[in-house]
Amino acid sequence: MNPSFSSHLINDVFGDPGLFVEVRWSKRALLFDLGRNDALGPTRLLRTGDIFISHTHMDHFIGFDALLRVALGRGKTLRLYGPPGLIANVQGKLHGYTWNLVDGYPLTITVQEFHVQTIRSATFLATDGFQCHNAPDLSLIRRESGDRFHVLDDPMLTVEAVTLNHRIPSLAYSLQEQFHVNINKERLREAGLPVGYWLKEVKQYLWQGKPDTFRFRATLYHEHHKEERELILGEIRERFVTISRGQKLAYVVDARYDEENETKIVELAQGADIFYCEAPYLDQDADKAQDRYHLTARQAGVMAKKAGVRELVVFHFSPRYTGLGHRITAEAQEAFQGS
User: Fold this and answer.
1) Which of 90, 164, 173 is nearest to 132 (CA)?
2) What pLDDT was estimated at residue 294?
3) Domain segments of the chain: what residues?
4) What is the CATH class of 5-71+141-178+247-337?
């Protein structure tokens, strides 16, 4: 099975935090945190429409300017999600520049910040020099059990979050594919059907919950000719499609280790295929980690084990361990894989 999400850390384990997730087959990407992101380059930044901010300490937000710069003049909408105060932080960034020549630019920036009971939203338009347009508050709906809440609902995927204690609210996120759609290309060839864009449309119809009786027109590009054909979704699903469990990623940064945070993190990351978790400190410096509201490598490994994740990736190492990154990774993996 080819995974739908291709994910990697933007920087090395000592660099600014940030996770780039490409949604395969769709020319779409998601960003978790906006630390320094020059390594992505303009092409990958421009694929990004949805950006999930943990909090706005400098090493998690300084990359906003780079994203803004490549998006200017493009017909894009940037959608940012994050903790209380994000709207004011974005507004402050935008007010740091002069915008007298962008009234013809089509860029839109929307921001949602998640409070205990409400969601506050604002829109910034290049056409009026990025003035702040506030929208009415919405009610924040949490799951019936636990502390998770929905941040983004999409036919293909869902992003959920929990609020962690970092002496300020810091959001941790999970990304869950609704279900995975696998196409049997060998059966397609046997039936004389080509691989092509029409299969992306089939996947979208399945994620959207279209009924088996749904009819659609597909453009089929054969080797020497093009064909227009009406197809029935249920027949395509039954003959060529396998539905399986969707992929899940979790992203946790900047939180102290205490009972409440651990419960939230384990719940959020439960069953994740990849758990990206900060580990700034070795456990020998657990007191300092506690004082700085961060995790140790061992604590990250313990929570990954409790959450039953398949793979643990630790990052956001403190520079005090420069040259000793292998020790942090080893400590986390020992706690994760050990008894």
Assistant:
1) 90
2) 98
3) 5-71+141-178+247-337, 180-244
4) alpha beta
